[in-house]
Amino acid sequence: MPGRSVIRTALDILYPRRCPVCHGITPGGSLICPACEKRLPFISGRRCRKCGKPVSRAETLCRDCASVPHVFTQGIGVFLYDEVMRSTVSAFKYRGRREYGIPLGVLAARAAAPALRAWRPGAVVPVPVHAAKLRRRGYNQAEVLARSVAAEAGLPLLTKLLVRRKKTEALKNLDPEARRKSVTEAFGTAAGVRCPERVLLVDDIYTTGATADGCAAALRAAGADRVYVLALCIGGGYLTRY
Length: 242
Ligand SMILES: [Zn+2]
Ligand SMILES: [Zn+2]
Description:
Blueprint: H1 4-14, H2 34-39, H3 63-67, E1 74-80, H4 83-94, H5 101-111, H6 113-119, E2 123-126, H7 131-137, H8 141-153, E3 162-164, H9 176-186, E4 187-189, E5 198-206, H10 210-221, E6 226-234
Parallel strand pairs: 1-6, 2-5, 5-6
Antiparallel strand pairs: 3-4
Helix pairs in contact: 5-8, 9-10
Bound molecules: zinc ion (2 copies).
One zinc ion binds near residues 21 and 33.
């Protein structure tokens, strides 16, 4: 039987890996070009201790987490949603670059490794997309990411546990209360799939946490005790403005 590296090399020739930042073929089958990796906006420094958003020196919680209680336990974001990530995520999500989820998931799992060690989740669960969107796009980008995160972190992946019952399109036009109601109704869990006590929810972008809370509420109702959130990117998009 040929070794893994031989198979990998053969696959690289057939399907050369493309860099999620410059879209070129990566050198030697690496995940990302070394120069492009340097351009990635890894979040470092102080973070909101609830959602993981960058905060100033004086804050322990971001403005949103200080004013709106969350259903999820704790979260971490890997990248700022800047111009580089906007373009990468847009290719991954809307221009069919499904394979970008693999290197992005590996980078996310590596960056979040200390949090994952502390949280000890029993399974990785992607934020589900509505069936109509799944048909249109062909894949759920959060599931592609979650699969890569689970493989890199050595955790089981549960893709059938959490389900999306309703579309939640116009969230940004709703006030926080209406938004919460809308997302809580949008998610549920499938009967017959056991929910672990500690779940790691994976999504591509975290903004206000409304989606994460909707998922966390459904997972808690199914028996989860702690719901952690790993977001590839963390955006601004504060609910509370002042
Ligand atoms: Zn590149
Ligand atoms: Zn926060």
